[in-house]
Protein 1
Amino acid sequence: MRQLSTQDTDFEQQLATLLAFETVNDANLLKTVDDIIAQVRLDGDSIVLALTQKFDQHPATSIHELELSKDSLAEAFATLDDEAKTALTTATTRVKDFHQRQVQETWQYEDELGNRLGQKVTPLDRVGIYVPGGLASYPSSVLMNAIPAKVAGVKEVIMVVPAPKGVLNQLVLAAAHLAEVDRVFTIGGAQAVAALAYGTETIPQVDKITGPGNKFVAAAKRAVFGQVGIDMIAGPSEVLVYAEGEADDRADWLAMDLLSQAEHDRVAQAIFVTTCPKQLAAVAIEIEKALNNLPKADIARDSLKHRGALVLVKDRSEGMAVINRVAPEHLELSVNDPDALLNDIRHAGAIFMGRHTPEAIGDYCAGPNHVLPTSGTARFSSPLGVYDFQKKSSIIYCSESGSKPLAKTADILAQREDLDAHARSARYRYQ
Amino acid sequence: MRQLSTQDTDFEQQLATLLAFETVNDANLLKTVDDIIAQVRLDGDSIVLALTQKFDQHPATSIHELELSKDSLAEAFATLDDEAKTALTTATTRVKDFHQRQVQETWQYEDELGNRLGQKVTPLDRVGIYVPGGLASYPSSVLMNAIPAKVAGVKEVIMVVPAPKGVLNQLVLAAAHLAEVDRVFTIGGAQAVAALAYGTETIPQVDKITGPGNKFVAAAKRAVFGQVGIDMIAGPSEVLVYAEGEADDRADWLAMDLLSQAEHDRVAQAIFVTTCPKQLAAVAIEIEKALNNLPKADIARDSLKHRGALVLVKDRSEGMAVINRVAPEHLELSVNDPDALLNDIRHAGAIFMGRHTPEAIGDYCAGPNHVLPTSGTARFSSPLGVYDFQKKSSIIYCSESGSKPLAKTADILAQREDLDAHARSARYRYQ
């Protein structure tokens, strides 16, 4: 596993290389995706069914067989063992509790002229959530996408999840039941994104599509952006764990936290940053030890080899600079005084504070969303939240007297912009 | 000008045709834009200068001549006449006042287990605002893009504005001075977007790009989305004016409000919706009258002919349905009781309430932003605001005892997702 130090003369360059990750912009892929979208717009249900039969080897013979009933979701939950039921229910409750605090309300105020200004907040009417199928089909993703939408007040949440060979993950369906998803279609890929964006005879058109997916899904989301809203183009998952070699640190804990990211994906990224050379060496040893006995060791090794790093910094201030440079999706602060660092952290998707807050707790049940900005996009974007499922309309009410001075100002500025009808429209209100 | 009625058997189809507007997806345009972006990433300053010389016929011979000093902005303001100074200053003050109410703050709370959860709010570090040059170079756009960024706490606002043949609009520069823009480069097109997204030797890389532009700018923004944040892909501007033929309505005012949209652009859209056939006829007559004496009559006629409509609805409830179907960028409610309608309006960028609130007041100086979702995207997006220049990071702090039950739940769910390192990382915290 690569080791870097801020003392290296080419540290900046090494860090830039480590972080470089471009989403595939393969022209063939884009063409395929564009073609699928065009076909779905033209042929609707029939092509969605045909592509699902082809790509997912799904045995359905009609589009209606691709929709799951609400009863089947309830049934999936009912047949779970108690341990799973309790865990999923706990996660649901906690995620709902947290997100309820994100709800925004309409506000209005009166200005000194007697005009009323404000912002009306309205939930989106209908949204689609994409849940990957097959190996990486996660019930937790269902909760994290559907719950904020429901808390926002979205009337209809449509979930799509591919079912390769018709096989479904029962935990995913149970999660859809708990999260009160309204309709589920077992479709996936660019065809599912296109169906949600434009609607077909059977699949309703939505206003926004959220949720992760493979490169076809990512390309399709980018292509339909504007027709519908999208959450983000997700890149590989990353964690940055920061420590300072304090007495309470446990190298085996730190190593396992890094591995919990590395086991996700061969392109996942785990970075350890420490001010202490001894701790850096100890964590390297513990990673090797743990890898000897990890089911997904093969994936994790690849991830650590190609995208992982152990980074030595001189002091806390350098540590903070590296964190802000990386703008990590997940940031763990394994220090005695994590609150002291909070002000200096400008870019991170989620901040896990102290030694008893591993990323895994946030992935499942702490409450905050696990859909987070990746690949440095925490510089400008936020965790998925209720705010993604509410939108705002400005409210402007001018009284007859309050309108006059504003109309005068608008008249003057409109004339300077050579917009004569604007100016006259304003002038009517004060002359 | 086309007249529709909800009584027409094909009303739905006619309305769909009226609203259909797809942003250009011309393959040649996309290729040109992709090539420009690739060149700028490779060659930086030199290609930005060369393209500016070529496309804008700008006389500069070095990239540094393309940057304006802060003094030149102050100078542009100082040389304005008093009327313009006062109008711009009033607009600045009101826009700032409104946007200050949108500032979001960091929050945290303690759960019943003694864990702390919350959301840290941080301004973006550096943003770019695109201001069109030439004919449609509007000082109001500078205020509406730069002020929310500054109110959010963005440290550095970089403005780009093309200067065809080196000529600049002094009002635009004066607005940049008032809005406290930090740096201005006189560049435009896809090359300006690429320079802001990736940075060059001279032009700093930003975290988000906002502001309208031509089709090259729109395509470039879509292409760099993910590398940086963007506000939206803006379509043509639209207004929907709603009235019910009440005694206080003035057909000449309503006509001028529609024309103030139509004069913007040949593809701008002005729609009048009324429950009253007599009012519909009267507004049609007033539009014709006003067109006889409007500098931009030619543009407005084209816009009204191809994209405008006068729509007759049976009653208020049908009116609200048409409004929500259109999801207009600007919505004027010319009725005695606009507040009574507010609850039923689900989709609109900005709502102008009552007869004394023409869109023009909102365009310049009411306070709310004039950068609004177009082409029906008010279904899922919001006016530009301070929230576009702040982002959130989740805060999760688990106490030693509060961590244990959550770690247990995470352990169980991680096992069900076959993520062993996740499970072990959680288990360390409770065993």
Protein 2
Amino acid sequence: MTDQPSITAAILVIGDEILSGRTKDKNIGTIADYCTAVGIDLREVRIVPDEQDRIVAAVNALRTDYTYLFTTGGIGPTHDDITADSVAAAFGVSIDVDPRAKAMLLERHKPEDLNEARLRMARIPAGADLIANPISKAPGFRLGNVFVMAGVPAIMQAMLDNIGPTLETGLRVLSHTIEAGNLPEGTYAGDLAALAIAHPTVSIGSYPSMTQSGFANRIVVRGKDPEALDAAKGDIEDLVTRLRG
Amino acid sequence: MTDQPSITAAILVIGDEILSGRTKDKNIGTIADYCTAVGIDLREVRIVPDEQDRIVAAVNALRTDYTYLFTTGGIGPTHDDITADSVAAAFGVSIDVDPRAKAMLLERHKPEDLNEARLRMARIPAGADLIANPISKAPGFRLGNVFVMAGVPAIMQAMLDNIGPTLETGLRVLSHTIEAGNLPEGTYAGDLAALAIAHPTVSIGSYPSMTQSGFANRIVVRGKDPEALDAAKGDIEDLVTRLRG
């Protein structure tokens, strides 16, 4: 084990369309996978509506509690896109059309097409760094430890790829999955609890899912120390093998 | 319009496996769709890890702010299933094996198979009503305005079906979708903002998505008053038709 401090993160999804169910979020899973892959500990997710006071409150709560905050949604050209203004308000900084962002929009739009609405996408809080958008050019931005990204999954993914190299990362959390199949959780839960106590430096979880043919249970052991992980994995495999008899 | 108070809700998803990305949540979308269909205004979602202090804090924040709180996950038989104990702690009530819940488990398990781990699934906070689980019998429960449900989507859905008739519902939010197709958001954003001001009793949003052939934009108008909704819809359709030329 190591004393390296853990790097933590939260996600804030901004959008009435997610809360109404009309759009099913895909970004949470993408960012969660990314964090796990690079050793960032995703600790919380919130989804809030397109309302400035709600966005400001969530941004300020989450940027204080975690190393990084990733937001998605609300940075387009329409009146309901209020994320940039809300993040500026959360930080108490001004916001205006940013020449760097305007130049990016001009890569896609003719000057005569850069109307007031499109220029909204160049409104960037003072002090922010831009996050390039290779797909539709309108950038995201980083202000302090907050990364503001698009809601369209393909664009969010491209922005995440861009910011990835700039992120401080920690020791990766490694994991092993032990397939318990249709072995009922109730048959191994007692022994598994004892193994969790015996292996205090790893985290052991049991995750049921349902298939056409019934329950399919998985035991997952996670941790940063490979040796401790292997020891726990071995004990869990022995348990499952013994119970399968 | 009406003065009927709106019925609000939040969702709390409990589970390390969602935050790690290993499991992709499906319950948020299901509950969001349900709320929209019955006239409950889903206002917030949080995802937190399997840690009692985090669950307690989120339960107490969300049950205070909204009419209903729906939780998913963490009610199985293994040591990492701590939702019931955490909800009891949040309410400051005791928790113990509930004879009604034990009877439900005995519908599925022989008495000699009802070991200590399985009996964990019958631990219910004092004062709670049970939510039947037709699939694997282990019940969820309602305590005050908090509904505690399973994380396995099929079981969550069945529990949601069971609690549905007990929920107070509001006026349904009706919606119309106007397909803007590949008409760029930036071409209609200014006019749409003006329509949003002209139709203050409805909510107008513009939602881009990407397809193989480029952007596919949708304008969605939502509201509880059918006449106001139709008027806004008509104006937006006229706008899109005019711009499509």
